Amino acid sequence: MNSTARVCGEVSKSPPTSPPPPLTASTSVTETVDGFHEFKISGYSLTKGVGVGKYVASDTFSVGGHSWAVYFYPDGKSPEDNSSYVSLFIALASEGADVRALFELTLVDQSGNGKHKVHSHFGRALESGPYTLKCRGSMWGYKRFFRRTGLETSDYLKDDSLLVRCRVGVVKSCTEGPRECNIPVPVSDLGQQLGKLLQSGKGCDVTFDVDGETFAAHKLVLATRSPVFRAQLFGPLGDRNTDRIEIEDVEAPIFKVLLHFIYWDELPDMQELIGTDSKSASTLVAQHLLAAADRYALERLKAICESKLCEGITINTVATTLALAEQHHCFQLKSVCLKFVAMPENLKAVMQTDGFDYLKRSCPFLLTELLKYLARLREHSGTAIGHPKDILADGCDANGRRVKQRLH
């Protein structure tokens, strides 16, 4: 009997393969952050003869996180050119190292024909890439930008003025990767919460008497926001048991705004506060508020007031604002005021205002600064600015009194 033998064997299997690791990716993005500036050079003929290497400069402007300025050399930058050319440069005006940028300088054809003189690196393939400025004061431009004889008979010069437009493209690089999540984060509402705390009156532990009105507040909030309040309420010379404080030299509406800012970290609706949209009324409030902000060392509020006063400078307000800037060490605001007063078209009108009389009484030494400023301006421009010594009219004294208009 035949039998069939069957051999059974197990089939071997390969071990399961692991899934491939996830692919990650990132992208390096390099681009230019562009900015533009227009620089008008009025009185070109008066700048001639200033000397080789001497320049007139534009205001600084910001591009790509750096400050820049345009420098125009009426007699040229290099002695070897013997004042035959004007020079034009863009300079890095802020601290920085190895700032890479592209530049464009345009001398505008003021005849309307559009035949501008343009030197540009935008849209061109540069052999060594963008230019690198090593440090503050580094420049890019042309020593022989334009021959003077040709410039003075060209359409670029109109009414003794030149117009230069510049473009700066600062090279920025960043690496972008995938985001693991995209959960929106709400903006901070701490100021609103503190403001509502003030409105509710809950937990108030100090009351201020101001010009016949009372204001309740919280010592800890005041001490956190103002080093002056901190010293008054919790300092070694302060009375920690004080629950009522009288405030002098600050009017009630101003103190109310001050408290609002301390809690909300922003100003209230000023039009609603003063009941009008008058620019002069807003300026008066900002002047009083600046003095209060300085008294309580609220630096951000002080800067906000400086900015508003700078925007609101007029013939009738500049003198009192200048005195205020001097008294409260607002150096940028002071500089803006001096420039405004020194303009020939403004000087005489400002001197006839009540504010100028106040300036002479409260800060007589500022008149000396103004005279020096006028002298430098006249020397630089070569134009007559009248007789600045007339500023020292009678009425000057050195008593340093402060006289402020009241809000009501």
From TrEMBL:
Residues 204-271 form the BTB domain. GO terms for biological process: cellular response to salt stress; protein ubiquitination. Residues 34-168 form the MATH domain. Residues 1-27 are annotated as: Disordered. InterPro entries: BACK_BPM_SPOP, BPM1-6, BPM_C, BTB/POZ_dom, MATH/TRAF_dom, SKP1/BTB/POZ_sf, TRAF-like. Coiled coil: none annotated. Pathway: Protein modification; protein ubiquitination. PROSITE patterns: BTB (PS50097), MATH (PS50144). May act as a substrate-specific adapter of an E3 ubiquitin-protein ligase complex (CUL3-RBX1-BTB) which mediates the ubiquitination and subsequent proteasomal degradation of target proteins. Belongs to the Tdpoz family. This is BTB/POZ and MATH domain-containing protein 1-like. It comes from Raphanus sativus (Radish).
